[in-house]
Amino acid sequence: MDRLIGRLLTIDRDLASVREFALLSAAAVPLTTEAAEVLAGGRSASSQLRMLERLGMVLPDTTATEPTWIVPVPVRASLLRLMKSEEPGRLSGALLALAQHWLDRGRPRTAFVHAIDAEEWDLVLDILREHWRTLYTTDFLHMDGDLARIPPKVLESEPLFDTLRRMHRQFSAPKDSPAPRPEVETLADTPDDAEQLMRAIALRLGGEFEAAAEECEPLMRLPIPDPDASTAAERDGFGFACLHVGISFLVAGRFDDAIQVLRRGHRAGAGTFIERDAAGKLALAHAVLGHMAEAGFWIDQESRHPALPTESELVVRPAGMIAAALSSLDRFDTDSALHLITELGPPDDKEEFWGFGLYAYGQLALTTGTPADGLRYIDFQMRRFPTMHGNGAVVGHLLSSIRADLLLALGRTGAAEDLVGESTNPHSAAARARIRLHIGDLPGALAIVDEYDTDLGCTVRDCIELSLVGAAASLAGGAPDTARQYLNRAVTLSRLTGLRRPFMMLPGDMLRQLAALGPELPVDPDGTVSAFPASRASAPPVRLTDRELVILRSLATGATISAIARQHVVSVNTVKTQVRSIYRKMSTRSRADTVEMARRLGLV
């Protein structure tokens, strides 16, 4: 390739006349009219550019906002090699001139790249020292590659630059073998919001989610740049800050704060990757909360943007895809949800939203009646992220909740209770109430429902599910009026939000019993496939005779059948007959199960 290009530049009369400019043009990225004038020293740059375009050496960039040309990648690489071999000093001078040109025009990242290309490390450090806030906040997706091209010894010469390098190493490290969290020290002469944002990001990437969210609280008060008086770099920096503050709140379960800040970031980041990234995160927040209309709006906003380069796309796209999968499940569109989750694939080693993806996978398994497969997959993948579901991570509670539901769907009630029984987090309240309902502990189920009925930490989805448990438990306990009140609330919330999937979180027989109470359900009770088998609470209320209640209470003392017969002055056969009647009415098969259920029902 180099021989061919060199030969063309020599034997072709037209190319030979612009040979020097052709070689220098490879140094400029982007190759604009102004950059060409810098390279040509003001000598007929426009005419030389037009000649290179006519000869096919450069191509016009139709996507640029100013006249710009592209040197094809293999041609550019060859021209640079020729320039380095023939006039290395001239190439270095051109790169330095371009770096200064872009610094003068307020584009430090373009200047930074040219300085790295020139291997002028003093200038690289000067640009970093002067513009690191802008570089870090507006070009985060590119900084990892840029920093990797700088020798470590150069960056280690100053603590701040070494921190930047360590932070990007932390970002790209697998979560099961994380890089150490860098210490971000406040510099005496530059105590500002950028350093606080860096600390928050470092904490979040290190799995300290609650601390990261707390670090972000002061940043919620950042002033919104005036769109007319501010520069593009200032608006981009504000958008980037809002994006990462919003992400920090989102992964810590502070959904309302996340939505507020991400909306600001979406507006400020218009025309950049931030706009799309913020839309995807907003869609995910609303989808988890059960806000179907809002989630759909932000999914549409996110999908309007073109795909980014591969590495950037891997960072930006998962949140929006997970939101779309959850929204598809809420519409009972399991085919679309399956397609999205399959396309997303297993979580990447450095994926921040891995837990939300597993949560969606578990919801799909619950909806499609494959709880064992869902539980197996989630448990396996969670081992890859051992430090990323504690310390305030909302996915820790979401995953515990969906795993408990999957266990309940498998009939493993004890394991489900072990998983979330002691939790006090509102995101697991509905799962805990379902467990109590399933084993027939009606007072226990209602106690959880009433405790979290007004908890502002519960999502709309949680509230509908809890109200349905309250309705089922009240009906099973012989209180149809109370059941109707709970059901009315669930139906009203469902109509307001469009959220219907919580109704499949009850066994089918329970749903049919609730349908007879009067309020019209938003789903067909006969056509809705439940995620769960029938529970003990699905049966009519236990009605024992006075004599059977006496015998039941004697069974609870541990006394033998003979001892019970002597105590009540009846025959052994009479006691056995009454015990069999008790078993039949309570749908149990042993004394232990009978006594346990009687205690939960408040009969003993």
From TrEMBL:
Taking every annotated instance into account, which residue ranges of this chain make up the domain HTH luxR-type? 537-602
Annotated region (Disordered), positions in chain: 171-190
GO BP: any one term: regulation of DNA-templated transcription
Recorded hits in PROSITE patterns, A to Z, give:
HTH_LUXR_2
GO molecular function term, any single one = DNA binding
Q: Which residues cross the membrane?
A: none
Out of the domains of life, which is the source?
Answer: Bacteria
* InterPro entries, per database record: Sig_transdc_resp-reg_C-effctor, TPR-like_helical_dom_sf, Tscrpt_reg_LuxR_C, WH-like_DNA-bd_sf
Provide the alphabetized UniProt keywords. Answer: DNA-binding, Transcription, Transcription regulation
Q: Which CDD domains match?
A: LuxR_C_like (cd06170)
Q: Which Pfam families match?
A: GerE (PF00196)
| Listed name of the protein | HTH luxR-type domain-containing protein
